[in-house]
Write a structure and sequence with these properties.
By secondary structure, the protein is an alpha/beta fold. The protein is 36% helix and 21% strand. The strands form two sheets. A four-stranded parallel β-sheet has the order 3-2-6-7. Strands 1-4-5 form a three-stranded antiparallel β-sheet, with helices on one face.
Length: 159
């Protein structure tokens, strides 16, 4: 089984972005959203105006804006990198994470599959949390970058 990454967060995080699990390229680089064509980091830079030349800068950009980043899946098996190719999954303990981070008020899903896994595996939906599913930043999801950016920016700014 493949392993996910630890979360990026602080005790002050107010928003949590959840993906499914690292792609093959992300796992090779040991970086969230490591595929060169994934729109996640460019969207974050466009929304928050920060540098993203290094992985450290990318992580610092999220932390500076009280954003936590994690995946729904702790361990998994899948064929290639497609979100439709998962065969075995083990969830992260997101309920405990959310309880331990009471400042988090918004959970944003990076795509439908992350939301689906959360609903089926975690089943923790306190009324105090706002949940929203956003367009996947994956290059496999062919929505135009401008449309992805518009949806992500609206969600991040109202949270």
């Amino acid at each position: 089984m493949l392993n996910g990454f630890p979360p990026i967060h602080t005790k002050h995080s107010t928003r949590l972005i959840l993906g499914t699990g690292p792609s093959i390229r992300s796992a090779q680089k040991q970086q969230y959203y490591g595929h060169e064509r994934n729109a996640f980091w460019p969207i974050m830079a466009d929304v928050f105006g920060g540098p993203i030349r290094t992985y450290e800068e990318k992580c610092e950009l999220l932390i500076a804006h009280d954003i936590a980043l994690w995946d729904v899946l702790e361990r998994f098996e899948r064929k290639l990198s497609s979100d439709s190719a998962f065969t075995t999954v083990v969830a992260n303990d997101l309920q405990s994470f959310l309880v331990e981070h009471p400042a988090i008020s918004t959970v944003l899903f990076n795509g439908q599959k992350a939301c689906s896994f959360y609903k089926s595996l975690i089943k923790f939906h306190p009324a105090s949390l706002h949940f929203e599913t956003l367009p996947s930043t994956s290059p496999a999801y062919t929505l135009a970058y401008a449309q992805k950016l518009e949806r992500w920016q609206a969600a991040l700014m109202e949270a």
